[in-house]
Amino acid sequence: MRQILQPQIPIVHHLVDHIHGFELVVMSQILDEEPTIAQLVFADLTRSGRRTDTGRDGMTAEQVIRAVIIKQMNCFSYQELAFHLADSRSYRTFCRLGINDKPPSKSTLQYNIKKIGPETLESINQILVRHADGAGVEHGRKVRVDCTGVKTNIHAPTDSWLLWDCVRVLVRLMHQAEDLVGFCFTDHSRRAKHRFIGILNARAKKRTKLYRDLLKVTRATAGFAEATDTPLMRAEGLDLMDALAAQWVAQQLRHFVGLTHQVIAQTERRVLNGESVPAADKLFSIFETHTDIIKKDRRDPLYGHKLCLSSGASGLVTDCVIEDGNPADSTLAVEMMQRHEAVFGILPRQAAFDGGFASKANLAVIKDMGVEDVSFSKRRGLKVSAMVKSSWVYKRLKRFRAGIEGVISFLKRCFGLRRCTWSGLPSFKAYVWSSVISANLLIIARHKLR
């Protein structure tokens, strides 16, 4: 039947007849079955101590965690997430936004999502893993472990680029100080930029001279910044807002001046003195100071953090550890088995590791813990009979371990784990865990749909 006009527009959302719509329905049901998740998020949202029974209605804890899942599942920016929550009927239904509810803005989404701490997200992942155990999706009797790296949102950390970053940031802050208290200084940013570009394009023999001049300019800029502290702290006659702004600028200048001296020192050691600076002494970014350098074999170095992941036969990421520095894989095997036991309450019957985890000590300890079959993809002097019952079991576990490469690829391609776009170490950890729980929730939903 065809009509000229629609007599009555429906006032409720209908499910979309699409596989992704079915996935969202099952994912929503899983979250409904685990009310502890919303309670954990609510505790983080109200951590500041503000009253929750007055004022405008904000985003509920349930809406916030569901928005996190939609964001990471589609690799949306906050602006894109705000648009899709306003435009998509399916995503509005999943995030529990009514048909007349005003969608949250990008700033509201950012404010609420960044309040969720990494410890809370890790606890949520454990709840999802236990839910998968109860639903028969993952029993934890078979586990595979591997490491990967996740980049921080920085550029290539060359010495010249770091020096140029220091100069431009200090100059920007000193211009703000100039507007507040009338402080005068010499702006060397133009000269520093010319030296920075010159170093990028110069031959090796001519770079040292350019580096010396860039270091001279950076030291001079740092000296002006240090002299700015006293006028800012002694500022008189300012109103409250300008006085607070002066304190903030002074604090930022102290922070970046300290980092500037560190960059100058490591550049002098490496470029002028020809020293090999240890990774622990290096600063790779003045904005993401927590960044580590990750080197694996002959691959290009990665600037970010090392992750150690555990995965089960279902493809779920059962555990994730964000490491400090670049520890050897062989030092992580026993810890991952202990963490697996803490999550599932039992040790796995079979465990498959990458070749970097192999060592006689690791094999002995894990066997003593009660794991029956322990496979390393590279034997490194270990006998197959010492690891597993038979060569057939070893081959099966070796193939099983290769599946975690697909899990890592899935996280990086589909859930934004290739590069973290959030600033700061706590936010980095929260970003990683939000990607993991989004992937796990989708995997559990797909298993249930089967």
Summarize the model shown.
The protein is an alpha/beta fold and 450 residues long. Helices cover 57% and strands 8% of the residues. The protein starts with 18 loop residues before the first helix and ends with a helix.
Task: Tally the beta strands.
Answer: 6
List SSEs in N-to-C order. HHHHHHHEHHHHEEEHEHEHHH
The assigned CATH architecture of the largest domain is: 2-Layer Sandwich
CATH topology of the largest domain: Nucleotidyltransferase, domain 5
Within CATH, the superfamily of the largest domain carries the name Ribonuclease H-like superfamily/Ribonuclease H
What is the end-to-end distance?
A: 36 Å
Estimate percent helicity. Answer: 55-70%
Average residue pLDDT: 91
Shape: flat
Compute the gyration radius: what is it? 27 Å
Secondary structure category:
alpha/beta
The overall number of domains is 3
Largest pleated sheet: 6 strands, mixed
Beta-strand portion reads 5-15%
Features of the shown structure:
Nucleotidyltransferase, domain 5; 6-stranded mixed beta sheet; flat; single chain; 16 helices; 450 residues; alpha/beta; 3 domains; 6 strands
